[in-house]
Amino acid sequence: MRDVAPADASLEPPLEAFGTAHRLAAEALGTALLLAIVIGSGIMGDRLAGGNVAIALLGNTLATGAGLVVLITVFGPISGAHFNPAVTLAFAIRREIGWPLALAYVVAQLVAAVAGVWLAHAMFAEPILQVSAKLRAGPSQGLAEFVATFGLVGSILGSLRFRADATAWIVGLYITSAYWFTASTSFANPAVTLARSLSDTFAGIAPPSVPLFVAAQLVAAAAATLVFGWLLEQRRPGRREAA
Predict the structure, then answer these.
(1) Which residue range is the domain that position 193 belongs to?
(2) CA of 82: how far to CAs of 72, 79, 109, 112, 150, in Å?
(3) Confidence label for 234 from pLDDT (cuts 50, 70 and 90)
(4) Do the domain assignments include residue 234?
(5) Which residues contact 36 (CB under 8 A, 6 or more apart)?
(6) CB count, 10 Å around CB of 79?
(7) Which among 183, 188, 216, 234 counts the fewest CB atoms within 10 Å?
(8) Residue 241 within a domain
(9) What are the Cα distances from residue 191, in Å, to 87, 154, 201, 217, 243?
(10) What pTM was computed for the model?
């Protein structure tokens, strides 16, 4: 993310503050922990809910939203706390991260997301290697992922523009909300989507459903970057708009 004055600071400090290795490690650790939270809380919620899916989803939701606040707060100053190829794509389009580093971020996110799933399986004595059988198919699911990701990127860009210090809370609260107002329960993250296909647990998604989700997420990230880039553009002094 951009290097700006403290009054308009993003989650990322000046580029020279941390080396590439530190930034990639932060992305990997943060993404792995995020997936451990998503999968682990899904397993715990499912086991304790007594068959009540709403209660299981509520537990999964609260853990994920709270975990995001913590992870973004801790890792944001090091790497920007993307944890998400769609978010990295948005900042690459905005030229706030170079494409080579963006690609490295995405690789770190994808690998770490799978590791996070396996970590959750190990903690709950589940088989490490799994493939989900939970289909999440159909146009409504794709639309839901577009809306979830569009809103996520918009929330990040808007918070960085007006309340950078609150970004962790804004993202955590948005995802908590999107779990419930989107039909897909808001994956909004290609790395999360791919990794969750490797878990046949409450939070899983069957591999055939992954391409639709990822395509919707990437298109939404690009669209949100353009729309919010225009919406949040600051008018230059003296510039007047036509009535």
Answers:
(1) 18-227
(2) 8, 7, 9, 13, 15
(3) confident
(4) no
(5) 116, 117, 119, 120, 123
(6) 27
(7) 234
(8) no
(9) 11, 19, 17, 11, 45
(10) 0.91
Indicate the length of the chain as a whole number: 243
- Which of 107-129 are b and which e, b meaning 16 or more Cβ less than 10 Å from the residue's Cβ? ebbbebbbbbbbbbbeeeebeee
C-alpha 10/C-alpha 33 separation (Å) is 22
Query: What's the CATH code of the domain at 170?
Result: 1.20.1080.10
Cα 90 to the center of its chain, rounded Å: 12
Say how far apart CA 49 and CA 194 lie, in whole Å: 26
In a domain, 235, yes or no: no
For the stretch 57-105, pLDDT in tens is 999 999 999 999 999 999 999 999 999 999 999 999 999 999 999 999 9
CB 151 within 8 A of CB 178: yes
Q: What one-character-per-residue DSSP string does 11-35 give?
A: SS--GGGS-HHHHHHHHHHHHHHHH
Residues 6+ apart with CB under 8 A from 45: 55, 56, 57, 58, 59, 60, 63, 202
CA distance 172 to 191: 18
pLDDT in tens, 38-55: 999 999 999 999 999 999
Tally of domains in the chain: 1
CA–CA separation, 157 vs 5, rounded Å?
16
